[in-house]
Design brief:
about 475 residues; alpha+beta; 7 helices; 26-stranded mixed β-sheet
């Protein structure tokens, strides 16, 4: 009883130093255990409370012999962790101890039915919320060296599940994950959704310039041989194989809003300048659907571009060791169905370490009808096509400034109608003029164009850059 009283007194003194409040504390020498009921910790915008914290299997002889603390199990029951990012920093009034000298080993850490949330303050919408039914860590150790890092402990195994995850991406979109699971070296997310906060009309009132409105749904995102770590306060993520399965992405852009004047980086630069280290050896995309809508004139409705049954293999996405002579090139192979009818294959590569953002992209698309072409051209460009394209092949190389390439185009009876402003009646004069320019004599002849030159518009995306390359090649073929 004397020793148990000494244990309780020591725990109480140390909890007081750490500014913990609680309802009850119990310690048992024979049971080699201790428990705290309803603990609460508040400091510098962080609040932690739980139903119970319990320690089992304290190795007293290890402490008496070597001054090391070894514990079999540390269990948190119904913990809730809240962080307010705008909270002011309080002056540290806790008493200094010998924490730097600690040598602690916990064989198993268990969290049961926990919650974690982050917000600017207690009166605004949460930025992040996660319900965590279970979390288990094995062989958790704390020592002088681990306390110096951003993650102040080491562990050998981690297993965690979350059945509700919410993240506020920005002022326009929220993200939801139905289930997250981490076990050994694998991490998976199920039923991922990115939802806009406003409908299409209201969305435009909340943006200063053109911006995409996303409505995204992914069946699963799975990472195998997954590792994460902090080194020099920098986050590092690695995965040998990552897979995205069964996705539906809808993108909407209103062209009536003024252009965004800011420079748009190429994808290689985006990855190169990520605020963390990333290394993904292989990324597989299976059965993705993408729909892009662009509104130019509300009376004509939005032009639409679709990609269905999109499958892709992407190799070597990395910004690690970019100075190495054998730094790998990123290769992307895509197979999809364009506008619901034309098979499209694309091969694309770039070097993330190359600061000129050099790239190469080639592709082949088979037969597409005028109906497929007009899904975008008629509403967006006020132009209606007749006939169709039998085959198109392109090959372009370039950097973040300009590109060159070649293109082959086969078309049949291709004519255009330039519509009136209302988008319904044909403007016969402009249509006749356009068809004088378009060569309709060679109805099945292959047209090959070389030396197609394109200058990149710096405040437009890579996809606008590719579209300008294809457009320039098509215009040379028609003239």
């Amino acid at each position: 009883m004397f020793i148990e009283n000494k244990m309780e007194t020591a725990l109480e003194e140390n909890l007081k130093k750490a500014e913990f409040k609680y309802e009850d504390l119990n310690a048992s020498l024979l049971g080699r255990s201790a428990s705290i009921s309803n603990p609460v910790y508040k400091k510098n915008g962080m609040q932690i409370n739980a139903e119970e914290i319990k320690i089992d299997g304290i190795d007293i002889f290890e402490y008496i012999s070597n001054k090391n603390i070894e514990i079999n199990t540390l269990k948190f029951t119904k913990p809730e962790v809240t962080i307010y990012t705008e909270a002011g920093k309080e002056k540290d009034t806790s008493e200094e101890g010998n924490s730097a000298e600690i040598d602690l080993l916990i064989k198993s850490v268990e969290v049961i039915d926990g919650n974690f949330k982050m917000a600017k303050n207690d009166s605004v919408k949460e930025q992040l919320f996660a319900n965590i039914p279970s979390l288990n860590l094995k062989q958790v150790s704390v020592n002088r060296e681990s306390l110096k890092s951003a993650l102040p402990f080491n562990y050998e195994e981690l297993e965690m599940t979350s059945d509700s995850l919410f993240f506020n991406l920005n002022d326009l979109h929220d993200m939801y994950v139905e289930k997250m699971k981490m076990k050994e070296n694998s991490l998976s997310f199920s039923n991922i959704k990115m939802k806009p906060l406003y409908d299409k009309q209201e969305f435009q009132k909340h943006i200063p310039y053109e911006k995409d409105r996303f409505d995204l749904s992914l069946g699963e995102l799975a990472l195998e041989s997954f590792n994460w770590s902090f080194k020099n306060d920098s986050l590092s993520l690695e995965s040998s194989t990552t897979a995205i399965t069964n996705g539906d992405i809808k993108i909407y852009r209103d062209k009536q809003v003024k252009d965004d004047p800011r420079q748009k980086p190429m994808y290689s630069k985006m990855i190169r300048e990520l605020p963390f280290k990333l290394k993904i050896d292989t990324l597989k995309v299976n059965n993705l659907a993408i729909q892009y809508q662009e509104l130019v004139n509300p009376k004509r409705g939005p032009g639409k571009v679709t990609f269905k049954n999109l499958n892709a293999s992407i190799y070597n996405i990395s910004n690690v060791n970019m100075d190495a002579e054998d730094f790998p090139r990123t290769d992307i192979d895509v197979q999809t169905q364009f506008q619901g009818e034309a098979k499209l294959n694309v091969n694309w590569n770039f070097d993330i370490s190359n600061r000129a953002d050099v790239f190469s992209i080639s592709g082949q698309m088979d037969r597409i009808s005028s109906e497929g072409i007009n899904q975008f051209m008629e509403p967006a460009l006020n132009v209606k096509a007749e006939g169709g394209i039998r085959d198109m092949r392109f090959n372009f190389t370039g950097n973040n400034q300009n590109s060159t390439g070649d293109m082959k185009l086969v078309y049949k009876d291709f004519k255009v109608e330039v519509l009136q402003k209302d988008g319904e009646e044909e403007n016969k004069f402009l249509s006749a003029l356009a068809n004088l320019i378009v060569n309709n004599d060679a109805t099945s002849e292959e047209k090959e164009q070389e030396g197609i030159k394109t200058q990149r518009t710096q405040n437009k995306s890579f996809w606008n850059y590719l579209w300008k390359n294809v457009r320039n090649g098509a215009l040379k073929s028609f003239l």
